[in-house]
Design a protein that fits this description.
two-stranded antiparallel ribbon, Serine Threonine Protein Phosphatase 5, Tetratricopeptide repeat, 589 residues, 2 strands, single chain, 4 domains
Length: 589
C-alpha cells in the first residue's frame, strides 16, 4: 500500500518540484488557500510522474501551461464583469464552432454556451447583490446615477475609486460614460485599461475605434497581437479590427468588402453580428435591397424594411420583439417606425421617446423621434435630436439628411448649404453626398446648374441610385424636359423596381398625354406600396381630367336636357365619397 506524505512533507516536495519544473515553461499558481487539485498522476508532465513514482498516492498541486486558451480569456472577462465583451466574442466563437465542430471539445463548447447565455442575461445583474464590497457599492451607485440620467454624478463616483482598485467593468463603464460626454482622451485611456487586463474585450476595441479609428487602429492591433499569435484560430481578429475601423471612418465600401471576406472565407460564415453589420452598411450605402436580404439571412428583420413598403412585416417584427423583451430600445423603435410610416406621428413620437429612455445612445431612436417632431411642425426640437444623433454617429449620412431636411423645412437654406458642404468634405465625394448637396442646391434658383452637375456626377458613379434619379427627374420636370425624364426613369427601372420611380414616370407620362401607360405605372407603384398617397392622387387626378369629356358626351346624347350636368355633380359626390373611403382604408390623415 502506498504511503501518504504528511502535510509538511507535501509542502517541501511541492517547493522542490516547482523549482524543478518551472524552467521548463511551467508556471506555479498554487497557494495554501487554493482548493485541492486533481491527483498528480493525472497531470500531463512526464518528469513530474517519474520524479514521484508510485510511493506517493496524492499531492495538492496545480501546475498549468503558461499559455491561455481563448476559453480562458472568455472566462476571465466573464469574471471581470465585461458582459458585452463576452457576448460579442462568444457569439463569434460559437459561430466558428458550428462551422468546424472539431474546433472545441464538447466541454469547451458547453462553457461557451453558458458564458454566452449568462452575458445575455446580465443586462440586469443580480449576482453581486448579496456581496456588496465598497467598490461594488460604488459601481451600483454609478449604475443608479446612469439610469437617472445623472452621468456626471456617475463619473464622479467612479473617479473616486483609485486606479489600481478599478476592475475591468468599472473601467468599461467609465469609458462609456466619458464617450457619451464627448471626452475622448479619458475614454480611450479607460478602454485601453480594459484591454490591458482583457485583451479580447472586443467591445472595448470598438469603443477605441469610434475615436479617430485611423490613429488608434495600429495601437489597438499591437495590444491584441500577442493574443492573436499565441491563441489558435484567432487569425481573423486582425481583419475584424480593420473592418470596424473602416465602419467608423464611414468608408462603407471597404468595410463591406472586408466583412464579406471574413464572412465568406473563414469560420465566421453566417455569424449574426457580422450579417447585421453588413445589412446596416448596405443600408448606409443606399442599397436597401441587399440590406433586407442580409437582415433576413440573419433571421432578424429590421425597420429598414419600411423602405421596401413592407409595413406588415415591420408590424409583425415589432410584436415578436416585444414578446422577447420590452426592456430594450429596439422593439419600441420598430413599432415607432411602423407608426411613423402609417402617418401616426404622435404615436411614433411617444414610442421614440420611450426607446430613448431605455437607451439614450440609440441613434435610430433619435432619428425616429426627430423625424416625428419635424413632421409635426416642431422643427427646432427635431434639430436638437438630429444633432445628438450626429454627435453619436458622425459617419452616418441619414443623421445629416434629417438635420438638413429640418433646415430646409424652416427655410434656413444657408445653414443647410453649410451642413451639406461639411458632409461632402467629411464623408467624401460619393453618390450619396453628391446627391445630398444637390438637394440643397435645388432649393436656390442661383445654384440650379451646380445641382445638375452634382447629380450627373452622382449618376455616373451609381446609375441606379434612386435618390439621385429622383432629384434629376425633379430638375428635368422644372425645365419641362419630359422626354428626357422618361428616358432617365426607364433606364433606372431597367434593373430594379421602385415605387417612387414608377410614380414619377407616371407623372411624366401624364405630361405627354400617355394616359394609359401612366395609369399602368401608378398601378405598379401601388402594388409595390399600397400606402403611397401620391400615386393615389395621380390616379385620382387622371380620373377627374377624364370626367368632363364623359359629361360632354352625355350632354350630346341627351340633347342638352340637363341630365348631364346633374350626372356630373352626382358623379363628383360619389367620387369624393369613394376616395374618402379609400383614404380611410389606407390610413391617410
Amino acid at each position: 500500500m502506498a504511503k501518504t506524505l504528511s502535510l509538511p512533507g507535501r509542502f517541501f516536495l511541492l517547493r522542490h518540484l516547482n523549482s524543478y519544473l518551472y524552467p521548463r515553461g511551467w508556471s506555479r499558481v498554487w497557494t495554501r488557500k487554493t482548493p485541492a487539485p486533481p491527483p498528480f498522476w493525472n497531470l500531463p508532465h512526464p518528469r513530474l510522474r517519474s520524479a514521484l513514482g508510485s510511493s506517493v498516492s496524492c499531492c495538492w498541486a496545480a501546475l498549468s501551461p503558461g499559455r491561455m486558451s481563448v476559453i480562458d480569456h472568455v472566462r476571465d472577462m466573464a469574471a471581470a464583469g465585461l458582459h458585452s465583451n463576452v457576448r460579442l466574442l462568444s457569439s463569434l466563437l460559437l459561430t466558428m464552432s458550428n462551422n468546424n465542430p472539431e474546433l472545441f471539445s464538447p466541454s469547451q463548447k458547453y462553457q461557451l454556451l453558458v458564458y454566452h447565455a449568462d452575458s445575455l442575461f446580465h443586462d440586469k445583474e443580480y449576482r453581486n447583490a448579496c456581496l456588496p464590497s465598497e467598490i461594488e457599492v460604488k459601481y451600483k451607485m454609478a449604475e443608479c446615477y446612469t439610469m437617472l440620467k445623472l452621468d456626471k454624478d456617475a463619473i464622479a463616483i467612479l473617479d473616486g475609486i483609485p486606479s489600481r482598485q478599478r476592475t475591468p467593468k468599472i473601467n468599461m463603464m467609465l469609458a462609456n460614460l466619458y464617450k457619451k460626454a464627448g471626452q475622448e482622451r479619458p475614454s480611450v485611456t479607460s478602454y485601453k485599461e480594459v484591454l490591458r487586463q482583457c485583451p479580447l474585450a472586443l467591445d472595448a476595441i470598438l469603443g477605441i475605434e469610434s475615436f479617430l479609428p485611423v490613429a488608434w487602429g495600429a495601437e489597438v492591433a499591437s495590444m491584441t497581437m500577442n493574443v492573436i499569435q499565441t491563441v489558435p484560430n484567432l487569425d481573423w481578429l486582425s481583419v475584424w479590427i480593420k473592418a470596424y475601423a473602416f465602419v467608423h471612418t464611414g468608408d462603407n465600401s471597404r468595410a463591406i468588402n472586408t466583412i464579406c471576406s471574413l464572412e465568406k472565407k473563414s469560420l465566421l460564415r453566417d455569424n449574426v453580428d457580422l450579417l447585421g453589420s453588413l445589412a446596416d452598411l448596405y443600408f448606409r450605402a443606399g442599397d436597401s435591397k441587399n440590406s433586407v436580404l442580409k437582415f433576413e439571412q440573419a433571421q432578424m428583420l429590421d425597420p429598414y424594411l419600411i423602405k421596401e413598403g413592407r409595413l406588415e412585416d415591420v408590424e409583425n417584427l415589432g410584436c415578436r420583439l416585444f414578446n422577447i423583451s420590452d426592456q430594450h430600445a429596439e422593439p419600441w423603435v420598430v413599432s415607432g417606425c411602423h407608426s411613423f410610416y402609417s402617418k401616426r406621428y404622435s404615436r411614433a413620437l411617444y414610442l421614440g421617446a420611450k426607446a430613448i429612455q431605455l437607451n439614450s445612445n440609440s441613434v435610430q431612436a433619435l432619428l425616429l423621434k426627430g423625424a416625428a417632431l419635424r413632421n409635426m411642425g416642431r422643427v427646432q426640437e427635431a434639430i436638437i435630436h438630429f444633432r445628438e444623433a450626429i454627435r453619436l454617429a458622425p459617419c452616418r449620412l441619414d443623421c445629416y439628411e434629417g438635420l438638413i431636411e429640418c433646415y430646409l423645412a424652416s427655410n434656413s437654406i444657408r445653414e443647410a448649404m453649410v451642413m451639406a458642404n461639411n458632409v461632402y468634405k467629411t464623408l467624401g465625394a460619393n453618390a450619396q453626398t453628391l446627391t445630398l448637396l444637390a438637394t440643397v442646391c435645388l432649393e436656390d434658383p442661383v445654384t440650379q446648374e451646380k445641382a445638375k452637375t452634382l447629380l450627373d456626377k452622382a449618376l455616373a458613379q451609381r446609375p441606379d441610385y434612386v435618390k439621385a434619379v429622383v432629384k434629376k427627374a425633379e430638375l428635368l420636370s422644372r425645365e419641362q424636359k419630359y422626354e428626357d425624364g422618361i428616358a432617365l426613369l426607364r433606364n433606372a427601372l431597367a434593373n430594379q423596381s421602385d415605387c417612387v420611380l414608377h410614380r414619377i414616370l407616371g407623372d411624366f407620362l401624364v405630361a405627354v398625354n400617355e394616359y394609359q401607360e401612366a395609369m399602368d405605372q401608378y398601378s405598379i407603384a401601388l402594388s409595390l406600396d399600397p400606402n403611397d398617397q401620391k400615386s393615389l392622387e395621380g390616379m385620382q387626378k387622371m380620373e377627374k381630367e377624364e370626367s368632363p369629356t364623359d359629361a360632354t358626351q352625355e350632354e350630346d346624347v341627351d340633347d342638352m336636357e340637363g341630365s348631364g350636368e346633374e350626372g356630373d355633380l352626382e358623379g363628383s359626390d360619389s367620387e369624393a365619397a369613394q376616395w374618402a373611403d379609400q383614404e380611410q382604408w389606407f390610413g391617410m390623415q
